[in-house]
Amino acid sequence: MLGKRAKTILETCELKKGVFQDIFFLLLLSLQYIFIFFHQRTSRLQNQLQRSHGITSPISLTPPKDLDCIQTQKLVEALKPFGVFEDQQESNHRLVVLDKLSKLVKEWIVELGESKNLPPSTIASVGGKIFTFGSYRLGVHTKGADIDAVCVAPKHVERSDFFQSFFDKLKHQKQIKNLRAVEDAYVPVVKFEFDGVEIDLVFARVSMPTVSSNFDLGDDSCLRSLDIRCIRSLNGCRVTDEILRLVPNKENFRLALRAIKLWAKRRGIYSNVLGFLGGVSWAMLVAKTCQLFPNALASVLINKFFLIFSKWDWPNPVFLKQPGESDLNLPVWDPRVNPSDRYHVMPIITPVYPHQNSTYNVSLSTRAVMVEELKHGLTVTNEILQGKSDWSKLFEPLNFFQMYKVGLVESKIRVLVANLERNEFISIAHVKPQSFPGKQELHKGSKYVSMWFLGLVFKKAENAESINVDLTHDIQSFTDTGKPIFCSSLVEFHVFILVEGALQSDLCFPLVLTIDSSIENDV
């Protein structure tokens, strides 16, 4: 009896053991499938993110916090007084103007086709199109800003036609004012004001008989057989469109870029021509920040922007995507091939073919200035996000003339003192070390003037009630020496002999030396 029960219990245990083994196996198999599913999903999401938004994996995918939303709204309010947002009425007016310009372009292309005896069937479909680019295309233009646009025409239209017959057509439009052509520019352009909206219009002729309304500039093949001026004209729009395509959230990108552009202008580092960064370069840096923090709101993006690029290891280039190859054999930025590219100190590479460095004008000095401003921006935005400051502090203007003392001129005043000491009638030439703001009437409207005072003690004249002291030579030798040294900043000297403040019996004249150190003519 006992043996039977033991056998039954043993069989039951064996059965349960088998069931548990089966359950464990199924559970293990399920976990394996779950792991594979999530691994594939994660890999797919990462690949999609990298494929869509650049060559670098995101640093953080953290979603926005409530405080980020509050700070972003405060940022919007801080931007409003600077006119960075246009109202709906102005926005609609721009659309109307662009539509009128588009109609003028199409009319002109048809008229030109007729004058060149094209077949009627071809003329009916020649088309022509206006593409915008720059700040307007990015959606970050400010109130009253101009519009950059390119006129894309079919192959029967020559560049000379654009600057002659189309220029003449614009000249006869009542709503167009201030019309001028700049044919010898790096990118030749026609500038004008159309019903109150300033427009910079460049030209590109494609190697096709027609330009339809759905013509795609994103295809590299549209560059085939074009001259370099047409390629430059088209690439303005192509770069802008690609930047927008490569950012994960366009609205966050736009708000952050508006703030960065305003900051750069207020801090005096917004100028491609003068060796700083222009609009497209700032846009690419902000786009790079958006790629690295795809879920961040504008308030956080701005802080991360300063963090990344104040510590960037220049001259390592900034890429938004992996440079592509093409059979068009156009010159591209590549320091391995082009020796001149190796000397670029702050390369930011455009994301479309032919890839170029948008910051080739940057020098070591301008880069150093920008890096210092980026560090300052990081400090300020850290304070803002910690609640210690508000956004208005970020947009405080740079006081350029408080950064640099007039030491070059000041150091030469001792030369004037030495000249005066050699004068036989002067016993003491005493310069007051502190400088004073110059008087408005002495410097032709310039604010940036420093004034030094020199006290002169003249020797007593024997057997004479008065003497005539000529200081012309002493002063002239000083100014003549100074002019070639300070030709960029030293405009002129004003020297006056004042009789007020004579010291008792000595014949003492305060000598007022006013040095106009304005450089506004060079800025």
Task: Characterise this structure.
Residues 407-443 form the Poly(A) polymerase RNA-binding domain. One of its GO terms (biological process) is RNA 3'-end processing. This protein is of the alpha+beta class and 523 residues long. It folds into 4 domains: 1-53; 87-238, 2-Layer Sandwich (Beta Polymerase, domain 2); 246-398, Poly(a)-polymerase, middle domain, CATH 1.10.1410.10; 407-522, 2-Layer Sandwich (Alpha-Beta Plaits). The chain has 15 helices and 10 strands. It has helices spanning 2-53, 66-79, 88-115, 120-123, 134-138, 159-171, 228-245, 250-266, 279-292, 298-310, 364-385, 400-403, 407-410, 413-421, 472-485, and strands spanning 129-133, 147-153, 176-182, 189-194, 197-205, 426-431, 436-437, 449-458, 493-497, 507-516. The chain has a 5-stranded mixed β-sheet, with helices on both faces. A hairpin with a 6-residue loop joins strand 3 (176-182) and strand 4. Helix 9 crosses helix 10. Mean pLDDT is 83; it is low at 35-52 and 482-523.
